[in-house]
Amino acid sequence: MNPPDRSSYPSFWGDLRAGAFEQGYLNAAGVRTRYLHAGVRGQPGLVLLHGTGGHAECYTRNLLQHASHFNVWAIDMIGHGWTDKPDRDYEIAVYVEHLLNVLNAVGLERPHVSGESLGGWVAARFALAHPKRVNRLVLNTTGGATMNPAVMQTIKEKTRAAVEDPVWETVKARLEWLMADPAAVTDDLIACRQAIYRQPGFLQALEHILVLQEPEIRRRNNLTDDEWRAISHETLVLWTSKDPTADESVGRRIADLIPRARYALMEGCGHWPQWEDPETFNRLHLDFLLGR
Hints:
Layout: H1 12-16, E1 22-28, E2 31-38, E3 45-49, H2 63-67, E4 71-75, H3 92-106, E5 112-116, H4 118-129, E6 137-140, H5 149-164, H6 168-176, H7 187-197, H8 202-209, H9 215-221, H10 225-229, E7 235-240, H11 248-257, E8 261-266, H12 273-276, H13 278-289
């Protein structure tokens, strides 16, 4: 039997070896919070927020590309990754409070905030609650605008299957659901997510995470049309042609509601365009954040 071809093995190290970065932990008002950081403190700030069940590694293909312009922080949000997991339900206000405490801990007064899926939902709510603490806003296949029972059920089923029995196949299936091309799921990504899901206490944390997939709770956390209209920041609403959570018309509608929004569609990507097509994402993202 021939050995597998590892000549072009895709890894986080391959994403990050071209420049300097750090991994660390900070104290966000008592919540031990893990982060990836690149760039120079003193540059304009940029915070990157992952989606449901995710972690900072979803931005390894974007971190260094932004570091020459920004002081970039990708965090594991509360209850996620290797950040603390307090025994409470994580509705959006909990994430908003955690984000505020992270900004205070690292001295970011008014950074750009860019979020994918759940991260976009948190970013939008944060911009409404603390408008003076946000510069530009990026909503990448964002949550906060839909009530699709089939999608909510799929998220619950696939995530629970991966966390209750975090073998290679279940974790891989959870990640493949995010992608337009299942081949985009690398061994590094599976192993990373598997290690997170195997942490003691993660199954309990998962139930706190999944409350947003319950209709009544989701409804009270979603943004109303008037709330989308109340976002005053320059905003990029970025969607994809193969997003498994919502049709591109959802993104267009959000962009139409936000007064200072622009809309961009990335073809051939699923729920992680920053991972599946980093070259296009980085170009669109940087052009917007730099005002080009």
